[in-house]
What does this fold into?
Amino acid sequence: MLSSLGALNCRNRTRMALDLTHTLVIGISASALFDLREADAVFQSQGIRAYREHMLALEGAPLATGTGFALVAALLSLNVHGPKGAPALVEVVIMSRNSPETGVRVMRAVRERGLAISRYVFTGGEPLSAYARAFGVDLFLSNSVGDVQTVVDSAVCAAAVLSPPPEGYQPAEHQVRFAFDGDAVLFSEDAEIVYKSGGLGAFHASEDEARDVPLPEGPFARFLVKLARLKETLPQGVEYSPIRIAVVTARNAPAEARVITTFRAWGVYVDEAFFLGGLAKDQVLAAFRPHIFFDDQDVHVSRASGLVPSGRVPYKTGSVLRGGSGEEREKEGSGAVKAGVVHLTRSPADGG
It folds into this structure.
């Protein structure tokens, strides 16, 4: 008997770990996938014990969808295009500060919605950010400013704070649509710093002079490149792919050419690009109907989030763009817009 157990343990030790190198891995908090605002309100007003009782009492009750649900469902549907026996094209990990006990409600909701999710992280109130690297996450989505900020500072992967879900939103069918801002999201903060320090004229002159030089990578560059590689593997080809990528940026001529130069250098095929030159982004996004829109500025995220699922990409803690003032800008716009720093009390529902 002991020798049989020894042989079994040996086989388990030599089993190859799952290789997710070519798999797009999304880490999402439970509160970003489902609408847990009612549970969070219980925690905020009555504390952790009442929250636990609330979650256990409603364990069998359905959960409404959250901001990230449409994106997750659409991404998981891409796995029908993957080769049999190979790792999935897309994996989703639910990362939650619930305890395993209160997390049962989330697991039930996943089954009821028919989501092909098998991996979970339940930390019992501890921060989630440390587990992004452990699970090979390429994109981390959460309602918790603190968890997202820690991931951003560590540069483990792309990360964004999701806004509340928009009412009446209908995602595009038969495609997964991503919309990205440019500077400080796909690209580095360098051009943004030039704008802030020297104004619009200096920004345009600098970008026009460097139009043939690719922009440095920003926090979402690696995610975009991996998304583009996934797009290339799908049978329909990039032009008719079930993944559609748009860039929605405040840049305009003569600062637009460097964006195309950069995508060519990265080998990324972008389906649509909107160089708005100070026009509001919300109506363009309403027409494009992305499953998710990423921007670094509160002014754009707040306008867009009422129409389409949106996430704010925080600056690193030491970034000069933070500056303690919360200043933001719209190129060609009417000047800087002030935005307050957001502080949230952490609860199991808030972080998942």
